[in-house]
Amino acid sequence: IHLIRQARPLPPRQRLPALPADLEAIVLNCLAKDPADRYPTAREAAADLRRYLRGEVVEAHAASLAYRATRFVLRHRRWVWLASALSALLVIALAAAAALGWRAMRAEQRVLLRQDQAEELISFVLLDLRDKLDRLGRLELIDDVGTEAMRYFAAVPASELGDRELARYATALHQLGEVRLRQGEPAAAVEAFEQSLTLARASRDRHPGDFEGVFDLGQSYFWVGYGRRELGELDLAQESFEAYLALSEELVAADPENRRWRAELGYAHSNLGTLHQDRGELEPARRRFQASLEIKERLDREAPGDPNLESELAWAHNALAVVLQEQGEPAAARRHFDAELAIRRALVAGDPRDARWRDDLAVSLNYLGHWLLWHGAWRASLEPFAEAQEIRAALVAADPDDRRRRRRLAINAVALGRARIAVGEVRRGLERFEDARRMLAAPADEPATPADRRELASAHAQLAVAHAKLGEPATAAEHAETAVDMLERLIATLPDDRMTRLRLGSSLIVRGDLEHAAGREAAARASWRRAAEILDSLAGDSRDREAQAPWALALLRLGARERMEPVLAQLHAEGFCDPAYVELCAPAAGQRVSEGG
């Protein structure tokens, strides 16, 4: 009786495992000790049995969620399996999407990483590698590097390039243009520079307040101006150089302590000074060069030891020295030439393998030689001219594609030839002139750049002088006529170019002297008169000594001594005695020459 009243009944399925769980639950519900756990009435027990027989949820299991779910599955097997299949597919799809999304994210990360790596590589190619190749003096390798960079950028429209890529594209274009200039292709160079300028403008328009964008735009304006000047288009060059100056001033105004911006301002002043000098406007040129020198000297004092800044400082000394020489201040000019030469020698001593420093040293030596030649120290001028010739010959042999260096070698050869003739070594002088002619004429008889054509004509004029001294008047006359013809055609397209007018005036005097020696007095006077006309605007009311010497000689040939006496007095006061104008030598200078120079 106690067991019946108190003990929990044994579940029927322990004795009869095959008994359905629902039926067991009904039985246990009926046998529950606590009345609250039993069916309230026999009717409800019968109803639960009927639910069991129909396969529905029985009340005895109503509290079990697992039981309810099991009964639902048993009643709706088809729909449950369909839902299960769809759920499984959904899970698989979501898993696949997640995997693909993860892979896409990783792929995008790899693309971005590779893009960054490509940008770093192109930056290295355009900046570091190019700088190293430039130091080695290998223009063909620089050209190859630039070509490959252009292929990289050409694969993507400019509108789709990122900010960094757009800036690098502009850099690649102006570097390509610089290579074309050095190869003697100024028109192709300007085309590349103009494209670079277009990209730099677009880059700045994207980020108007970005100083680096302003800097890059300034660089592009500089190169356009540089290329236009090489073509002799001085007005267009000035527009670009003035834009470069304005951008440099904008940068300095925004950050006055930034050394890069201040250096750019110094370069901008120097560029405009060069244009003034090209036009014979020596006083404005002097002011620009002085401003540039002062900026670079301050930068050098603040942080000495930067070789690139040292080189720019040397160029500033050179530019100012040339103008001072042309304005009749030889002592001041010599001080700046000496300062320049000291810097150049120090740079070469610091890195003898750097082709840039050796090339620049040759420039300094050549200018020193001209100063000595101008002041009657003819024999002393041989040493710097010969040293410069040796340096430049080695550079051209190592990099024959660089036409700019070939032009400089030719200019140096003409200068050395003049010094040889001045000391009586006419044959050796003639050889140097022939070397210059061959270098400037190759690969075409008519070089592409105005500067090359001008220097080639100058070589012909000096050949005329040498052949005349050797008693070969016919050959001399042929070279003189070639020189005058080339320069007359050049001045027709560049009427304001100072150097072309100087070369033409000097060549006309040589031709006139040959006509005079042949007894053709009318032709001689026509040449001298044309020379005086060409040089008059440069020399008549200015301090341009380089123009005044040939102008005074032309007037002397024409018998207008009174007009040229003031100029002659100035030249004498400065110790002038260039071998091309021996009749104008100062007495003291003439004495030095007679004693061996």
Explain how this protein is built:
The chain has a domain at 2-75: Transferase(Phosphotransferase), domain 1 (Orthogonal Bundle). By secondary structure, it is an all-alpha fold. It starts with a helix and ends with a helix. The chain has 26 helices and no strands. Helix 10 (211-230) runs parallel beside helix 12 (259-278) and helix 22 runs parallel beside helix 24.
- Give a quick account of the main beta sheet: strands, pairing sense, barrel closure: none
Q: Which spans have pLDDT < 50 for at least 5 consecutive residues?
A: 63-67, 109-130, 590-597
**What assembly state would you assign to the polypeptide chains in this entry?**
single chain
CATH-wise, what's the superfamily of the domain at 2-75? Answer: Transferase(Phosphotransferase) domain 1
If helices are DSSP runs of H or I spanning 4 or more residues, what is the number of helices?
26
The share of residues in extended strands comes to under 5%
Query: How would the global form be characterised?
Result: rod-shaped
CATH class descriptor name of the domain at 2-75: Mainly Alpha
Overall pLDDT: 83
